[in-house]
Amino acid sequence: MIQFDQVTKRYPGSDEVLKNVSFSIDAGEFVFVTGHSGAGKSTLLKLIAATERPTSGTVLIANQNVSQLKASAIPFLRRRFGLIFQDHKLLYDRNCYENVILPLRINGVSGQEASKRVRAALDKVGLLHKEKAMPITLSGGEQQRLAIARAVVSRPSILIADEPTGNLDASYAADIMAIFYAFNQVGVTVIMATHDALGMSARQNRVLHLNQGRLSENMPSAESVLS
Amino acid sequence: MSNWLNHQLQAIRLVLLRMRDNLLSSFMICLVIGVAMCLPSLFYIGIDSLAKLTNHMQKETEISLFLKLDASKNTISEIDALLANNSAIKQYHFVSKDEAWQQLQIKSKDDNTVGDVINQLGKNPLPDAFFIQANSSEPETLEALRIELQTIPGVEQALLNTEWAKRLATLLSLSKKLTFFIAILLAIVLLVIIGNTVRMQILTQKDEIEVSYLIGATRSFIRTPFLYAGMLYGLFGGLLAIVMITAIIQTFNYSVSQISHLYSSDFSLNLFNDRLYLAVITSAVVIGWAGSYVAVSRAITTALRN
User: Where are the beta strands (DSSP E) in A62-212?
Assistant: First the structure.
């Protein structure tokens, strides 16, 4: 589904952020991307979401080579993903409902079908009763859940989350993780960058660990499964 | 197709809501557009009306042949014969000094001031005159004929009535060109104003543009509401311009009708110039679209680079 082959990324005027990275992710996997800040986690996610293009190497997403796609085709590729950002990127000039409906507008879904799906997405993250509330009145955890609702409303097959629990305290973070696991259970591929090990230890997950742009892959160890 | 239409309608609704939220500033922008469209339109209407008036006058190409005050009956009949034999002349008629005097008195009956002057004169100051209509209406031919008639003995003065109208027409065509250039300059100003307004709106909606792009919006999807904003500014500005033009013409016509009544003419400015109004609205909408297109294309490129 997602395949990186000897991918190197260098921004103008900087060293290589990613060096010779190769891996592949199958449909339905739940993959953590770990590493210190500055290790290249966000760049890796941007390459997957096609907001950046590799300096060299190939990125294949659903058998499409991102480097060779026309600029006009990129938006349509991006609609396969649900993106969740550390800073939520919610729009504070409109209420929760209007925030969540945005991807549907972009996809051309409207009317009854749209409001049905918005309510279903809000329900899944437990915010159905806050439909009319403005995002600024929500707590940090609720804002992140709203961002998840927006990411899943157009039913993407891949969720990409960049440190979704980074700014949250432990109990909120556990809530958020539970939501991601629930989506993974129904077949959604989840790729999550995180610098803390919360939630990882409890389950059997694949981890892509980045260290100064180099990838080392840890399959779940026996101890973490047992504990 | 219905998707596309839906998106357009949603974009228009969104823009209208935003305009309602910033009612005063939206009105200001429309007012600027309105005034800028109003100025050249008024020039145009004024010049156009005057041009129509002079065109009408130029068609009445008449040479007035005023005889010397002491012209005798013999001289008159000699000139009459000369005119009758001149092939360049289509028709002519003779007005004797007494007839002209009577006509003047009848005409000035209503007007006391002119009547007083005539009474004070006591005797008839008017000459005998021939009024001649030529076959040709070419200015050169008429001028040649006028010079020829001027040389006839007993003629005091041959006047070509259209000369001042011709000069006016030249002036008017000059003013038309001037109006054209003023209109172009103001169009450039509007382009910049609308472009800048849309750019400011883009700055306040930078987040929306960024988020939309990240979750898969195409450039045209992001661009659409801003293009509608520009077009709607143009439309409302154009409508405002028409309201202003109509109001100004209305008050102007009141004074004009008083003046033209004095010249016993029914000249007035045309109130419902629908072709001009259509042109005003169309150009305002097109300028609005173009201004916002340039602004939004530049802004999207810079917004997405960061």
Answer: 64-65, 81-84, 158-162, 189-193, 206-211
